[in-house]
Write a structure and sequence with these properties.
The complex is a heterodimer of chains A (426) and B (52).
Chain A: H1 2-15, H2 17-24, H3 28-33, E1 36-40, H4 44-56, E2 61-65, E3 70-72, H5 77-81, E4 91-93, H6 95-99, E5 103-105, E6 109-113, E7 118-121, E8 126-128, E9 131-134, E10 138-140, H7 164-175, E11 181-186, H8 196-211, E12 216-221, H9 229-239, E13 244-247, E14 255-259, E15 264-267, E16 270-273, E17 276-279, E18 283-285, H10 287-291, E19 301-302, E20 316-318, E21 323-324, H11 332-350, E22 360-369, E23 372-383, E24 386-389, E25 395-396, H12 403-425
Parallel strand pairs in A: 1-2, 1-9, 2-5, 9-20, 11-12, 11-17, 12-13, 19-21
Antiparallel strand pairs in A: 3-4, 6-7, 7-8, 10-18, 14-15, 15-16, 22-23, 23-24, 23-25
Helix pairs in contact in A: 4-11, 4-12, 8-9
Chain B: H1 9-21, H2 29-33, H3 38-50
């Protein structure tokens, strides 16, 4: 659809005087009109960025490279695991993005030549660019936790990329007998969706309480603190008394290895054999960021917070979960904000002007139950080369509020998902 | 939930100012509005008012 649109547009230009004139007298204005921006990764960051680029400057040639024809959103995928929502409600296509003039290429990017400014695709073809935006999300590190590789994830799902893994964890919970033990292994920071493991604990507990009330849920954590901690812990006590146990790093919660054959998680203080084991392993920026030379020794991408340009790979911008965004968490909302700000910076740089210093917002909702929502919000601006919280703004939902407040936040969570997915894909 | 696009810019600015100083109760907007200056709130309101 994107390709046919591009051909139509070229056909239109080819029939007009502008093309003839530009061939005879190349003008800076026309050279600018032909500027090419390639965006790799069609999640919340990349799709937002590609769309915003085209809206800011319709003359830009914008290509979005994404191998999957259907995007499966991670936010709200914990409700699929809990049986509250179907996976289809998480799925979106790229037709509307293509209809807006973005060329959508269903290929995997396999090579980047930063000097020649080209992207190589799995089919052997190559695309040139003036500026490249990487929004590759995270790769799960199958080398970081002994015993946990891709094969083990078929037995002990991570469900940290929405899709088959989400459905696998759902099926395992459905198949489990009442009285079983569910274990969630949560990673150290930084990782995608900091409140995600704890929301997942709530929503799995919601399912267990309703259908398998003698079951238990154990969280083995590689951290001593986590996002919205007090709110989550209050919700566990209030909604699921005696069902959820959290073992922190200093209590011996860090999982050092797993044995997929026996569904066992191994810590310094003993082994836990689970009926259902959800292992969320350490993560890093998606592989193409390393191929581009944009990752540092942490596995993530250092960026200039004004332009999102990589600190190590010129003309390459990195947004979303893959980048080190200081105080901004790795969330869909952050990726969407960053995609739009990056698009503005890229269009401004291509036009030969200096980008303005941005201010960005994030809000992350979590559901502790279908009508019990909590949130963390922040406003961010560049400070000393990284994103810092704007002082006095942001924070988490209040601790002591009536049930109606939690119900409203649960409603707003649903509205947020409908709004962001409509803006990015609709 | 009703849309913000196309609403009167003055009304949006008044609401944002109320969220910021706490006179207008809310769940999350009270936390977000505190991150913006008067000029920024007016710019946000003007942008939202211009959308269809």
């Amino acid at each position: 659809m994107g390709i046919s649109h591009r051909i139509n547009r070229r056909g239109f230009l080819g029939a007009g005087a502008a093309t003839v004139a530009s061939q005879a007298f190349p003008s800076p204005a026309f050279a600018q009109a032909a500027a090419r921006v390639v965006v790799i990764g069609g999640g919340f960051g990349g799709a937002s960025c590609a769309r915003a680029l085209k809206q800011i400057d319709p003359k830009l040639q914008v290509t979005l490279i994404e191998p999957n024809k259907t995007f499966t959103a991670c936010p709200f995928s914990n409700t699929v695991i809990a049986g509250l929502r179907s996976i289809e409600q998480q799925q979106f296509g790229y037709d509307k993005i293509a209809a807006g003039g973005v060329t959508v290429v269903a290929q995997t990017a396999t090579a980047i030549n930063a000097q020649a400014r080209t992207v190589g695709l799995a089919d052997g073809s190559s695309l040139g660019y003036e500026r490249l935006v990487l929004s590759p999300g995270v790769d799960l590190r199958f080398d970081a936790l002994p015993g946990y590789d891709e094969a083990a994830s078929a037995k002990m799902p991570h469900a940290w990329k929405a899709g088959e893994q989400t459905l696998l964890l759902r099926k395992q919970l459905e198949a489990m007998d009442d009285g079983g033990l569910v274990v969630i292994a949560a990673p150290a920071n930084p990782f995608r969706c900091p409140p995600g493991p704890y929301e997942r604990a709530c929503l799995i507990a919601h399912y267990l309480k309703t259908r398998k009330p003698r079951s238990k849920l154990l969280i083995l954590d590689a951290k001593d603190t986590f996002s919205k901690q007090r709110l989550f812990q209050n919700a566990w006590k209030e909604l699921y008394p005696g069902m959820i146990e959290w073992i922190s790093l200093s209590q011996g919660g860090k999982v050092n290895a797993v044995d997929a054959a026996t569904n066992t998680l191994i810590t310094d203080f003993g082994n836990h054999t689970a009926q259902v084991a959800n292992v969320i392993p350490p993560q890093r920026a998606g592989r193409i960021a390393t191929i581009a030379g944009a990752t540092d020794n942490t596995g993530w991408c250092a960026i200039d917070p004004v332009t999102f340009e990589s600190k190590s790979a010129p003309n390459i911008h990195v947004i979303g979960d893959a980048c080190l965004a200081g105080a901004m968490p790795k969330s869909a909302f952050s990726a969407n904000s960053q995609g739009k700000v990056c698009a503005s910076a890229v269009a401004t740089l291509i036009a030969g002007r200096a980008p303005t210093v941005p201010k960005l917002i994030n809000t992350c909702y979590s559901l502790a139950a279908p009508t019990y929502g909590i949130s963390v919000a922040g406003v961010y601006q560049p400070k000393n080369g990284v994103f810092a919280d704007v002082e006095g703004a942001g924070g988490v939902s209040p601790a002591d509020v009536p049930a109606d407040f939690r119900a409203r936040e649960a409603d707003y969570a649903q509205s947020w998902f409908a709004t962001i997915t409509a803006e990015v894909f609709g | 939930m009703s849309r913000l696009y196309g609403r009167d810019a003055g009304d949006i600015t008044t609401a944002m100012t109320g969220f910021r100083d706490g006179s207008l109760p809310a769940t999350v907007m009270t936390r977000i509005a505190k991150g913006f200056s008067d000029d920024e709130l007016r710019a946000i309101a003007a942008w939202l008012a211009a959308q269809k």
